[in-house]
Write a structure and sequence with these properties.
The protein has helices at 16-26, 37-50, 60-83, 89-110, 117-136, 139-150, 155-162, 166-183. The chain is built from eight helices and no strands. It folds into two domains: 1-116, no CATH class; 137-188, Arc Repressor Mutant, subunit A, CATH 1.10.10. The protein starts with 15 loop residues before the first helix and ends in a 5-residue tail after the last helix. The radius of gyration is 17 Å and the shape is globular.
């Protein structure tokens, strides 16, 4: 599926939930961030809009990769401002790698590897459906699903991070998955 890059412009808003999920996946476990994931995503989309003439890709996957790079820079800037340290290129590269890994985990959660362009386009559409559905879940359910299924943390660690009992986390996961099944057409 081709992504418009002409006067109509890139339809960046459709990637908001995707970027928000990736930003949230990078924030848990960070000591006391003084910034919000939605603020980071807004800054990312603003930068992308300002730099849209530089984008040379054609596919949804290329747009997602481009936006992940911009988000990594935005996250690095926010962490740098918070810690008032010097620019650390290794940290920025690790943020880009972490965002790429998070995006890969999302794609793996949806389906196995596919090779045809139509299958990749369908997977990207399903990815955007998934992140949109995750954004609609209550915060606790979304956090539990992200930490357990997307980041692969055991229920005991999710329990610690959320400050809830393992039984409560199991309930959040069950309700979260049930909610996702209702929100995503044709989900199994």
């Amino acid at each position: 599926m081709a992504v418009p890059s002409d006067a109509e412009g890139l339809k960046l808003e459709r990637y908001r939930d995707y970027l928000l999920l990736l930003a949230r996946m990078q924030l848990p476990g960070r000591p006391g961030p003084k910034f919000d994931a939605s603020d980071l995503v807004q800054a990312t989309l603003l930068k992308a809009h300002e730099q849209r003439q530089l984008f040379r890709g054609q596919s949804d996957g290329e747009v997602q990769a481009w936006l992940r790079c911009i988000l990594a820079g935005t996250l690095a800037d926010a962490f740098r401002r918070e810690h008032r340290g010097k620019r650390d290129m290794a940290r920025e590269r690790s943020l880009e790698a972490a965002l790429e890994q998070s995006s890969g985990q999302l794609l793996q959660w949806l389906a196995g590897p596919s090779s045809s362009p139509s299958q990749k386009a369908m997977r990207n559409e399903r990815l955007l459906e998934l992140v949109s559905a995750l954004a609609q879940l209550p915060d606790a359910q979304r956090e539990a699903v992200m930490l357990h299924y997307l980041q692969g943390l055991p229920i005991s660690e999710v329990s610690e991070r959320l400050g809830r009992s393992p039984a409560a986390v199991a309930g959040l996961l069950q309700r979260g998955l049930k909610g996702l099944r209702k929100l995503i057409p044709g989900a199994e």
